Amino acid sequence: MSNFDYTKEKIQDIFMIDVKSFYASCECVARGLDPLQTRLVVLSHAENTSRGGLVLAASPAAKNDFGVTNVMRGRDLPISNQFKKEIAIAEARKVPLPTYDSALDFYRVPPRMRYYVKENMKVNKIFKDFTSPIDMHPYSIDETILDVTASLNYFYPDDALSRYQKRDLLAREIQLAIYRKLGFYVTVGIGDNVILAKLAMDNEAKHNRTMRAQWTYADIETKVWFIQPITEFWSIGSRMAKRFASMGILSVRDLANCDFHQLYQKFGIVGLEYYHHANGIDRTIVKNKYYPKSNSLSNNQILPKDYSAKEFLLVLKEQVAQTISRVRRRGAKAAIIHLYVGYARGERDRGFSRQLKIAPTHSTATVIQAAELLFKKFYNGYSKIRQIGISLGHLIYTDELQLDLFSDPTTQIKDEKLDQAVDEIRLKYGFTSIFKAASLQDFGTSLSRANSVGGHAGGTDGMEGAEEVKDVKKVKNRDNRQRSANQRLSG
Predict the structure, then answer these.
(1) How do the domains of the chain map onto residue ranges?
(2) Do residues 80 and 103 make contact, with C-beta atoms less than 8 angstroms apart?
(3) Where would I find the beta strands (DSSP E) of 63-200?
(4) What do you get for the CA distance between the two ends of the chain, in Å?
(5) Out of 97, 217, 240, 255, which could bridge 6 as a Cys pair, Cβ 3.0 to 4.6 Å?
(6) What H or E segment, with its residue span, contains residue 358?
(7) For residue 470, what pLDDT band results from cuts at 50, 70 and 90?
(8) Residues 6+ apart with CB under 8 A from 163
(9) Taking Cα atoms as reference points, which of 293, 291, 289, 290 lies closest to residue 396?
(10) d(Cα 84, Cα 91) in Å, to the nearest integer?
(11) pLDDT tens for residues 99-140?
């Protein structure tokens, strides 16, 4: 029995669109390969972890044929003996590693984050052909929410078609437009609101041949409540599932029909949000953008090895300098510094997370001093370190220079001019055009990360082997792939 009168809920025409295996699809298209049929994984560089690279994305064929999953270790991927030899030869010669294992018809390619960002921008540009930019919300690099309520009848004015038929036709048109222009397959969840569109995409569209699914208020009891297990429901992870289980909530149906007062008591406003979502209620309006009251800038890193305190202090200075330079580029000053230090696996302690209020500043020297103070105060004195996170918050936008009464004002002004000069040089010639000599030490990370995006390689690595596809028999003629795509998306 419904817990809400859905006739009183606003019906919107919402699309939740996901580019299928986005990173892997980008690499397949760049090589002239079919994103659905090619066995390919995007593998992070091994130096980011002590146990080999991580799978950042895997194509559908790699998942189906080899059981590959995201975040699988590179060492656990299938590999032929011949490919092992090719890797060994490349390492000995210090040349780029091969990417194509011909014996298994399997690609292992490094990430190119800047390329993925550019392709994402192309996808979002196509979306603007179907709805207003204000009715778009990029949810992640591979997912976007579209509200097509205002444009649905523009594309399909025929009164003989139902609202739900028009939705499906427009979703199909978007799928074909993206495939024809960029070569990507996209999955579309269609819903009466944002949560129903998201659930439709995650729980049905990804498994359909047409890659489309539509959930409405009429489907809540038959579809939303039957999502199993409960961790398949959006935003419910294993920890939250355990907390729900302690309350006797074992399924989405249980969540939708429980006493929402208890949820509010235990989880606050978030508990009410879970209750409403389990009942298919989401009153979000895409065009009403949310702007946080206080913002921050952060920089997080998994270190390439276990660091001693002495080695870590260099990385700390590097990361603080990088983060505060971003604050300056925004024309802001930071009033809070937050430091996270994660200890290495096997240590008794897990690490610490602490913050400190500071006088609003964008001085590199001042913020480094505050970061060192936090580290020396809360570090246990013996553990090896593997993770670092710096966050600078409570940003204040002002051009005024706040002088410290306990420091020489001449020195403060000199430091500000020095920071500005360094920023200008890096803006014009790149980050590596000027850096401290200490960063050349083996345990420095700023130079190796200078070309990264999101912690991963941002350049053209891995394309040296792109010509290999010319010799691969399974590369299909584009016209044949187009015909296959039309048949699939038409159902």
Answers:
(1) 296-452
(2) yes
(3) 100-101, 106-109, 136-138, 143-147, 186-191
(4) 33
(5) 217
(6) strand 351-361
(7) very low
(8) 11, 13, 152
(9) 293
(10) 11
(11) 999 999 999 999 999 999 999 999 999 999 999 999 999 999
Tell whether omega for the bond before 229 is within 30 degrees of 0, i.e. cis.
yes
Query: pTM for the complete prediction?
Result: 0.78
Report the distance separating Cα 235 and Cα 9, nearest Å: 23
CATH class of residue range 296-452: alpha beta
What residues contact residue 113 under an 8 Å CB cut-off, 6+ apart? 452, 453, 454, 456, 457, 458
Amino acid at residue number 320: V
Find out whether 164 and 218 touch, Cβ atoms under 8 Å.
no
Read off the tokens for 465: 């082997």
- Alpha-carbon separation of residue 204 from 71, 135, 207, 210, 315 (angstroms): 23, 24, 5, 10, 45
Q: Tokens 């192309």 correspond to what residue? A: 122
Q: SS3 string of 210-266?
A: CCEEEECHHHCCCCHHHCCCHHHCCCCCHHHHHHHHCCCCCCHHHHHCCCHHHHHHH
Asked if pLDDT for residue 464 goes beyond 90, the answer is no
The identity of residue 197, as a single letter, is: A
Q: Residue 94: left (phi > 0), alpha (psi -120 to 50), or beta?
A: left
CA distance 174 to 401: 51
